[in-house]
Structures are given as structure tokens and as C-alpha cells.
Write a sequence for this structure.
């Protein structure tokens, strides 16, 4: 059956499981690297400061000018409109309709990957932000004053985004996968969900303020923003600049619920990877148990998948909390709450590694569809050919099985190293004594090794 | 410092042990999941004896009854460079679609269609009854 229910519905292709020898190599490298990380750690924090340096004033002014911002916003709104229209009016086949691939592959994966490299590239294209800002400007012009907003409840923090993130993936892989049949989420549902989400987001932006909601509640801003913390470029005081990679991540998790966002990201990718591989037998027996008790087939499947997705969240959270509790036992440790917040950002590279390992090949293949037939024939009705590429197909030969395996294992190893780097750096801030700092990191090392080896294990399990 | 390095060593030994056991268990799981494959009639391992399919005429056949594959989704496994040959016999009319390779054949009710093409794309692909969106076989091409 399918490695990715999503891939199942869209590409009808799955990656081959990573062979045992590569698994062994990957795990060994992880252990050796970890050993060196402990032995050869630096003694002063290196990533607490941004080391921000402005790019040329010309390029900064051009990219951040009002017309450029308006143009980006227009592009975002236009593409959202096209996708919603295609979803509502186009074919029911998810793999032939622009909407499904555009939302769940091009945007959901694409912005995550590129944000991690470049910085927050979603922000200028965010269609809801663009609409809300335009509405705000209109309000100011007519009323002659800034719109009044409610105070956002601080304690809520990023929890709305964490729950929303789970909901997006739930819609995609639980609601959209019906009984293992290659159906997938039907495009009309995707479009309807996008419309409902748009209404909700604009309402929230109106209530609490556009930037406030983008920081805390808007799922996509928060999710892509999380990955953008790792990236090279950022805007500061209206100027575009280069910063030390990873450095802004160290201050990302200060809002409540941030740890939940990164845990939700790891958990949902794990669930998607494990649901038809590592956890398949458990999921099937739970499903059978429910069906035996008179639950309908579809309901039983959705219920089972929902339970397991939540269990994944619980499992990932538990591993992290064990690490945090372990660190608490080291002399001079700050409070549990401070530790929990203080190390949450060290999981961002793990979340990214999971995402690359599970979806990299899928992204490469599906983007070929996005930029050929889905672009020329967005409705999938075979009646339009806007750019003359409607009859092109996906070339699956661009990536060999070996290339995919190396990228998958490489991503996990690199994510592991970056995670350890950030954790070591943060420990140096909390424990002035170097020996205690490095001893506290046995715990985070165990956490990272657990996540990386679990990631490798998921890739290596035969999904047959 | 000595104390710390001792602690560290113990930890690493523990970690190595866990990693190795995880490694071992993943091997087992691949084997156990591969084991039932060899008992199903539709499974073929042409890599063992590449010529048998063409010479003995023992081309694997996926039998479709009432729109569903008999004995569950058939597993067809090849190595890159092999010649992929299999047949689909169906009691319903539909279009048999091999994804990835993007090959399609119309099958009539009660008819048989055969496929014969080189294994040049690696990965795991669906073979499905396009009209019913029903997966009937899984084509695996190893590097």
C-alpha cells in the first residue's frame, strides 16, 4: 500500500524503502557525529546574536518598495483565486486539478523548503495579509483613524496555529484518504476549505490585527515562519539583510505554544510516513476493533487515523519532555517551563529534516505536473492548453532510487547536527559552567538520536 | 572531566546498542513483510531467473473479479533493466493503467490484456483499474 496517502492520491508512486545497509550507515554516522559534538563543543554561545548585515540599499529599496509589496500581494491573491476556482469548477480527479497540487505540494511543501533556505518568503505573498492590509488602508483613508483591535490573549500564543497545523494535515491525509483507494481529497473540498479558512483568517485579522494574527494564529505564516528562522535573509527596520543562519531561531519559541507547533510538525510527518509502514499493523487492528463494534468503515478509518495522529503528537511531545525533565536534574538548571520553551527551537531542524526525507521526491515529481499540465489545463478538463504544456507528463527518471535515498538519509543526518548545534549553544546560555552545560546535553543528544533514528527507521520499513 | 567522559562513554554504548537493535528489528520487519509475498500466486521475482517469464510462458497474471483483484493487491517486483511482463484478466470492462510508466490498456469484460515493457523507472507504482480507481497491483522496480 501507500507510503504517503497523499502521494497515493496525486502521484500514484512511492519511494522504495531505504535498504538496511544504508540505514546502518546513517545510524552509525549519527552516533559518531554526536560523539564529536559532545567532545568538541564550543564554550561561548555563537547563535544568540543575529550578526545582521544589510544588503545593498538599492536592492533593499526595490524589493521592499510599496509597488513590489502590492505586486506580491496581488500575485498571492490571484493564485488563491485561481486555485479556489479550479477546485470548485474543475475536474474531481485530484491529480488533474490545479487546486490539490497547488495547495498541498507547491505551497505547503514549497514555502517550507524555500523559507528554510532564504527566510520568510511567504510573508509578501500571503494573500490574507495582503487583503487585510488593503482593507486596513481603506479604513484609515475613510475613517481617518487606525482600526481598533482587541487585545490578543497572550496565553493563547501560537496554540491556534499549532492546532490549525494538525487540522491541515488531518484534512489532507486523514479526511482525504478514503479506505486506501486512490481517491484523495477531492478538489471541491480543498477549495471549500480554503474559502472557509480565508473567512476565518480575515475575521481574526480584523479582530486582533493583521500582524498580530500572522505572528500567532495564521497557520501558514506561523508554519513557514518557523522554518524561515533557519534561513539566510531577513528584514529588519525596513531593510533587507543577511544574518547568521540559525541565529534568529534562538528567539523564536518565546511565544506560548511554539513548542506545540514544532512538535505538531514532526508528529504529522511521522504519522504520514508511519501510517502505511511502521504503524500499519497497529492501525489495522484498531480499525478492525472499531468495525467489530459496529462503527462504519469510513468513520472507523478516520477515527483510527485521528487517534494515531494524536498519539504521534503525544509521542513526540513525550520524548521532548523527557529530555527537558532530564536537563532539569543537572545542577543549576532553570525551571522546567523555561527549559521547555528554551529548547523548542532545536527541534525545527528535525522537523525540516523529516519534511525533506518524506516529501522531497514527491515534491520534485509533483512540481513537474504543477508547471506543465496543471498550469496549462488548471481545471483538468482537457479543453484548455494555456501554455502548450497540457500534454506533458512527469518524468520519473529525473531521480534514481539511490539519489532519493541519499537525500533522505543526508537530510536526517544534517538536521540532527543542526539540532545538536542549537541545543549545545542554548545550554551554554543556561549553564555558565561548561561542564554542567555539556552534561545537560546528554539529554538533548538522546532526544535528537531518538528522533533521527526513528526517522531513519520510518524510511527503512518496507511498506509492502 | 574523567567522570564526564565515563558517563559519555556509557551513554554512547547504550545508544549504539539501541541503534543496532533498531537496525536489526527493521531488517526483520522487511523480511517478515516480504515473506508472505512469496506464497501469493501473483508474486514474481524475475531477478532470480530472468528468462523464466519469457521461456516457460509463466507470465504472472492478475485476476480481477467483480472489479477487485483476487487475493488482494498483487505484488510485482523487478530489478531495473529487467523486462516487465504481466497479464490482467478481468471480468469487468475497464482501463488498466500502470502509473509512473503511464501505460494504459483497455480490457473487455472477460478479456485479458498483457503488458511487456522494460523496467527503466525505479520506485513503487500503482497498477489500477482507472475507471473504478481500484488498485489491483503494486509494481516495484529496485535499482
Amino acid at each position: 500500500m501507500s507510503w504517503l496517502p497523499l502521494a497515493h492520491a496525486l502521484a500514484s508512486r512511492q519511494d522504495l524503502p531505504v535498504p538496511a545497509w544504508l540505514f546502518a550507515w546513517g545510524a552509525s554516522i549519527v552516533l559518531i557525529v554526536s560523539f564529536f559534538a559532545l567532545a568538541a563543543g564550543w564554550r561561548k554561545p555563537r547563535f544568540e546574536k543575529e550578526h545582521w548585515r544589510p544588503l545593498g540599499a538599492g536592492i533593499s529599496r526595490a524589493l521592499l518598495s510599496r509597488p513590489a509589496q502590492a505586486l506580491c500581494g496581488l500575485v498571492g491573491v490571484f493564485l488563491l483565486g485561481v486555485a479556489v476556482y479550479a477546485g470548485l469548477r474543475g475536474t474531481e480527479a485530484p491529480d488533474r486539478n490545479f487546486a490539490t497540487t497547488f495547495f498541498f505540494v507547491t505551497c505547503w511543501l514549497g514555502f517550507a523548503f524555500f523559507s528554510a533556505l532564504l527566510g520568510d518568503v511567504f510573508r509578501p505573498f500571503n494573500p490574507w495579509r495582503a487583503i487585510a492590509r488593503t482593507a486596513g488602508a481603506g479604513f484609515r483613508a475613510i475613517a481617518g483613524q487606525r482600526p481598533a483591535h482587541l487585545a490578543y490573549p497572550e496565553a493563547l500564543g501560537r496554540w491556534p496555529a499549532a492546532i490549525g497545523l494538525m487540522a491541515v494535515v488531518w484534512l489532507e491525509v486523514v479526511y482525504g484518504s478514503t479506505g486506501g483507494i486512490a481517491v484523495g481529497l477531492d478538489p471541491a473540498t480543498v477549495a471549500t476549505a480554503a474559502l472557509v479558512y480565508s473567512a476565518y483568517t480575515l475575521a481574526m485579522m480584523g479582530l486582533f490585527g493583521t500582524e498580530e494574527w500572522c505572528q500567532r494564529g495564521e497557520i501558514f505564516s506561523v508554519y513557514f515562519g518557523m522554518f524561515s528562522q533557519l534561513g539566510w535573509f531577513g528584514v529588519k527596520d525596513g531593510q533587507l539583510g543577511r544574518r547568521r543562519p540559525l541565529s534568529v531561531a534562538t528567539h523564536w519559541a518565546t511565544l506560548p505554544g511554539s513548542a506545540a507547533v514544532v512538535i505538531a510538525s514532526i508528529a504529522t510527518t511521522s504519522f504520514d510516513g508511519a501510517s502505511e509502514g511502521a504503524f500499519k499493523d497497529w492501525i489495522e487492528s484498531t480499525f478492525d476493533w472499531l468495525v467489530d463494534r459496529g462503527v462504519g468503515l469510513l468513520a472507523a478509518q478516520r477515527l483510527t487515523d485521528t487517534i494515531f495522529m494524536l498519539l504521534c503528537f503525544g509521542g513526540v511531545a513525550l520524548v521532548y519532555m523527557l529530555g527537558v525533565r532530564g536537563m532539569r536534574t543537572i545542577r543549576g538548571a532553570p525551571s522546567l517551563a523555561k527549559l521547555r520553551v528554551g529548547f523548542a527551537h532545536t527541534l525545527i531542524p528535525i522537523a525540516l529534516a523529516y519534511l525533506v526525507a518524506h516529501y522531497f521526491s514527491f515534491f520534485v515529481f509533483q512540481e513537474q505536473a504543477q508547471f506543465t499540465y496543471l498550469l496549462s489545463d488548471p481545471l483538468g478538463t482537457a479543453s484548455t492548453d494555456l501554455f502548450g504544456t497540457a500534454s506533458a507528463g512527469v518524468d520519473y527518471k529525473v531521480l534514481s532510487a539511490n539519489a532519493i535515498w541519499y537525500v533522505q538519509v543526508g537530510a536526517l543526518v544534517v538536521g540532527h547536527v543542526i539540532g545538536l548545534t542549537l541545543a549545545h549553544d542554548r545550554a551554554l546560555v543556561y549553564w555558565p559552567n561548561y561542564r554542567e552545560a555539556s552534561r545537560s546535553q546528554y539529554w538533548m543528544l538522546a532526544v535528537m538520536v531518538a528522533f533521527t533514528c526513528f526517522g531513519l527507521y520510518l524510511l527503512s520499513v518496507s511498506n509492502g | 572531566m574523567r567522570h564526564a567522559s565515563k558517563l559519555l562513554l556509557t551513554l554512547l554504548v547504550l545508544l549504539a546498542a539501541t541503534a543496532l537493535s533498531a537496525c536489526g528489528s527493521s531488517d526483520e520487519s522487511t523480511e517478515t513483510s516480504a515473506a508472505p509475498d512469496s506464497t501469493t500466486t501473483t508474486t514474481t521475482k524475475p531477478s532470480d531467473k530472468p528468462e523464466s517469464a519469457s521461456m516457460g510462458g509463466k507470465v504472472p497474471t492478475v485476476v480481477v473479479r467483480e472489479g477487485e483483484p483476487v487475493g488482494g493487491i498483487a505484488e510485482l517486483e523487478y530489478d531495473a533493466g529487467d523486462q516487465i511482463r504481466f497479464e490482467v484478466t478481468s471480468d469487468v470492462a475497464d482501463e488498466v493503467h500502470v502509473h509512473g510508466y503511464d501505460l494504459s490498456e483497455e480490457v473487455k469484460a472477460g478479456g485479458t490484456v498483457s503488458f511487456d515493457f522494460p523496467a527503466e523507472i525505479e520506485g513503487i507504482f500503482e497498477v489500477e483499474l482507472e475507471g473504478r480507481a481500484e488498485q489491483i497491483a503494486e509494481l516495484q522496480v529496485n535499482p
Remarks:
- The longest helix of chain A spans residues 297-328.
- The first strand of chain A starts at residue 13 and ends at 14.
